[in-house]
């Protein structure tokens, strides 16, 4: 890296759009920036924060796109720059400035589950990847470990960091059994020939530029967007009767699901909030049927968050085959005995993946309920005598009950955190059952669609450890304890191009490897560039 006389690095921090979240999370950000600055100064560099603490707002985050543009206007575009994140952040706040920044860019997060800083950084990394902006990335618990300090020193010296990507194998350079390839390609050709409709209830949730697939790339796969409005969803909710909403709620209660109701609308989940979610569930299915959607995504976090309750319970129900029946106004059952795959936070990359997975798994004779999760955090844990890195996957409620221990009987609904969800509404919360999974992520890179995928195992942890992890993160949300085969923590973080990861169960370990291979062939047939990550059983290709 070209070093100026002062050897100065400029630091920025993108935050939430919601004032309450920025205020609640500022203390953690302030501490993180202090630790990071100390680490940088040990190498003889100084750090200049590009925007001050705002005493009126009581935080120091960039909290709008215009503010981000103004901050970057006063930054030397050739200066080395760090984006420091310990919270969820809206990438579009700073993306405009980063598109014109010419100096080396480093994204950094604290290794903590307290606030979704790792999630925010991964989202930003995915956005930068899609935008074709060069960057490096690092993470650390205390900013004094060898991995972090070695990477920081490399970036300070050269302006970039090299990463171990030995766990990645290109599908085009791999060989899989012919039967698996035929299955995957035949399925994809049939899907592409029929074409699929992706119902998008408003696009671009929470600044997630990486979650929007350009139409010209999407159309090549046989998927097409039906652009819908969340205002139409709310209008449809107003047409649902109290009796219809009560029928959905009673169905869930009979299944054994628990609702942790209180009476304070501001801080507790109330029955009225749950009934409003039941109306949203019915309205969403009716609109999906009206437009013949194969999959839908509700944005919620902009627009609906100021109008009605959270969509998360709705999303979890939609992703499950065994769910409360929904009828048209004329009395016809809609999507009977089927899931209606929902992509949380209107992440279109997840939506494409979700529908392909759901339909393909059914072709393979398995249940195809799947969901995205945030890659929230993780720590080593002794699992059956083996010290393994166990990821904590967490999402605000879109996980289907089929993923949980004891299904609906193991599920509960807690009020969403007030700082994110002012009007409340509950989650679909549970602990994911042990078993083997196929994980994946579709993303945009070099103006083309790519897909990383691999095999993992959901492990059972003692309830004390599960509760500790929940309390270190967001205890209202469904949780998955995952071990990703053949991938270290740092390999995964350096490679992954999104805050979200898609997961689906297989019947047993061998079927997970088989399904992973078949899915890779299907994605390749759809025109997506595919990469195996970690341990996937393949046929070794002769040189």
Automatic annotation (TrEMBL):
A Gene Ontology biological process in which this protein takes part is: L-fucose catabolic process
Q: Which domain of life is it from?
A: Bacteria
Q: Which GO terms describe its cellular component?
A: cytoplasm
Keyword Isomerase listed? The answer is yes
Which keywords accompany this UniProt record?
A: Carbohydrate metabolism, Isomerase
* Gene Ontology terms for molecular function: arabinose isomerase activity; L-fucose isomerase activity; manganese ion binding
The record's annotation in SUPFAM superfamilies points to:
FucI/AraA N-terminal and middle domains (SSF53743)
Q: Which PANTHER family match?
A: L-FUCOSE ISOMERASE
- Protein name per the record: Fucose isomerase
